[in-house]
Amino acid sequence: MAGMLDLTIADARDAMRKGDLAPTEFVGAYIKAVETARPLNAYVTETPDRAMDAAKGSEARLAKGEGGALEGIPLGIKDLFCTEGVLSTAGSHILDGFEPTYESTVSGNLLAAGAAMLGKCNMDEFAMGSANMTSYYGPVENPWRALDAPDKKLVPGGSSGGSAAAVAARAALGATGTDTGGSIRQPAAFTGLVGMKPTYGRCSRWGVIAFASSLDQAGPLTRTVRDTAIMLGAMAGHDSKDSTSVDLPVPDYEAALGGDVRNLKIGVPKEYRLDGMPAEIETLWQLGIAWLKDAGAQIVDISLPHTKYALPAYYIVAPAEASSNLARYDGVRFGLRVDGDTLQEMYENTRAEGFGDEVKRRVLIGTYVLSAGYYDAYYLQAQKVRTRIADDFRKAWEKVDAVLTPTAPSAAFAQGEKMDDPIAMYLNDIFTVPASMAGLPAISVPAGLSAQGLPLGLHLIGKPFDEETVLHIANVLEQAAGFDAEPSFLAG
Amino acid sequence: MSIDKATVAKIATLARIKVPEEDREALAGELSNILGWVEQLSEVDTDNVPPMTSVVDAVAPKRKDAVTDGGYRDRVTVNAPAAAKGFFTVPKVVE
Fold first, then answer.
1. What range does the domain containing A146 cover?
2. Which residues in chain B have their CB less than 8 angstroms from residue A355's CB?
3. Number of domains composing chain A
């Protein structure tokens, strides 16, 4: 079948159900595409045999008229998800050789729905980064190139950079990501994809290697809003093994798509207009506002007064939780061990060699803000500010159904940029972090190109557990934008 | 808040990460920059504002205090870099 790699999840699913497309042929084409895309370094581990076995299973089930929502759909799985019997690294040296003896709930749900896992996607070490430059397995390259510098390698965003690069380059039809402060949405924006972080509690965190437990959420990266709806439906659901997983029925997200946005009110927060923001980001935002207005939505100017404090508060809360979560990497139970004369020395040597610079920086900051004498001034104050950020949104929901903002303050930048200034790198997440701090569902939709021909995203934030409205509006934005540009590098 | 070399050494010990003497100065500078930037949080009026403890309005579920899992010691120790006879091993801590 010509253009097989360009099919959406929805198209491929329908073709396979009708018998017009064989899962083994389809997955086989993707296995080849993964090999072709190796220069991007999007995968840490490739699992072609598992993918083909899954495709054979799908073929047998579909032949009998059976099967789940994702039969024969080839996916990349971020290397933060534990996968049974398959190396799971979190992009870190400290997890050398770690092959979990269990499957994360989310990846298990996808496999149970019939998906074929192509491999484990590269990522920033322990999901700490916004450029996919901190992985022990090397940087990931964005398949897009700028018009004025076609020889320069760009970052795919992070931390789910391998997932984003793979899907954008047609080396996966969809991929899982995790989002702590923007790690699904910002890479989606940088690579021309749809990426969604659902409400905190919608997807189980069980078996997902923890970074900041009160913020981490799994979600999909796909090429269309419909594909995100399909994939999220298969990932989500209550799990008794995660006490923060919410016991609510999972709606049919695909059914939420279609129709217009009349009767919907869209908030535009003035605090997201930053000094020094590139004009093309502002222009795109205005375009998005106009599209929704044309589709019948009412645009409402709103204020989220604590927006500017979300990022600094995040850089206390997330490192604090990380310093606690990453205490388990001690050279005793899994991964790397570097010997020392005493137990203390063995811990210190192992963690010095096993963690990269950004992880060390965050663990040290987290340790500091939780230490005696500083806890109240930093950690407690940050958690109070977080309450105020959540209150801002709660007040907004009295007036609007969703909030529209840009996803990121720039398009993708070159590998190596912003590496000597942690705060400049952190600012990538300035528009995505507030929704994370408030636990809200949010999506990035590809909406246009920068002057240099690079994708830019628009960002919708919704009410808790109202992924349906977010997806519904995102679908309208997607149709209005008609984004059909392709990256410079395509696998296959 | 500015962090000096001695503070870096102290928190590195608390975090069980070896930071060689020659790296402490640069790290102190980086951490001070980050803490200087988060300092702006003190501008926010948080009088009578409770700290966030749960990001969604959900009551923590309860379950019976019963064993629901376990009984597979091999699977627990299989990824340990130096397991022996079903145990994790560490350098000697008691003389």
1. 1-492
2. 17
3. 1
